[in-house]
Structures are given as C-alpha cells and as structure tokens.
UniProtKB/TrEMBL annotation:
<dbReference type="Pfam" id="PF05534">
    <property type="entry name" value="HicB"/>
</dbReference>
<dbReference type="GO" id="GO:0006355">
    <property type="term" value="P:regulation of DNA-templated transcription"/>
</dbReference>
<dbReference type="InterPro" id="IPR013321">
    <property type="entry name" value="Arc_rbn_hlx_hlx"/>
</dbReference>
<dbReference type="GO" id="GO:0043565">
    <property type="term" value="F:sequence-specific DNA binding"/>
</dbReference>
<dbReference type="InterPro" id="IPR008651">
    <property type="entry name" value="Uncharacterised_HicB"/>
</dbReference>
<protein>
    <submittedName>
        <fullName>Toxin-antitoxin system HicB family antitoxin</fullName>
    </submittedName>
</protein>
<dbReference type="InterPro" id="IPR010985">
    <property type="entry name" value="Ribbon_hlx_hlx"/>
</dbReference>
Length: 63
C-alpha cells in the first residue's frame, strides 16, 4: 500500500468544514487500523482515498 503524508494544516488557509458520517463501529475499527498502518489519521486516509477516486475519474482534486 502507498505511503500517505499527514496533512500539516488545512488547505485554503483556514479551518476546513467538518463532514460527518455514520458507519458501523466494526468497519470504523478496520479503517482505523489500516490508517494507523499508514501512519496517518483516519480522516487523512479517507481524504486521500477520495482524492484518488477523483483522479481515476479524470478529475483534478481541489484541496
């Protein structure tokens, strides 16, 4: 799996808006474990997955 760099500060110069979602606790535990293996927070890991999904669709991620 690729190495994902931890984000030092929010892009755009300010605090990013929060995005809340409900997931099964067992799934969250699995996702947190994979993110920890990569050395990043779950939020950073999910953001990088979303950016990669956009790139695969030919869309340049903003932020």
């Amino acid at each position: 799996m690729s190495i994902i760099a931890r984000e030092k500060k929010p892009k755009g110069g300010g605090q990013s808006p929060q995005f809340k979602m409900r997931i099964d606790p067992a799934l969250k535990e699995q996702l947190e474990a994979v993110a920890a293996e990569e050395g990043v927070s779950l939020a950073s890991w999910l953001k990088e997955l979303a950016r990669e999904a956009l790139r695969q669709r030919g869309i340049k991620p903003q932020g």
